[in-house]
Amino acid sequence: MQSMTRCLLVEDDAEIRSLVFDHLQRFGIEVDAVGSAAAMRAALAAGRYELMLLDLMLPDGAGLDICRELRQTDHPAAAMPIIMLTAQGDPMSRAVGLEMGADDYLAKPFEPRELIARIHAVLRRAAGLVAPGLALSRAPVVHFAGWTFDRLRRTLVSPRQVSVQLSGAEFRLLSVFVDHPQKALSRERLLELWRTPGEEVSDRSIDLAVSRLRSKLGDTPRGREGEPGLIRTLRGEGYLLDAKVSA
Question: Is residue 80 assigned to a domain?
Answer without folding.
Answer: yes
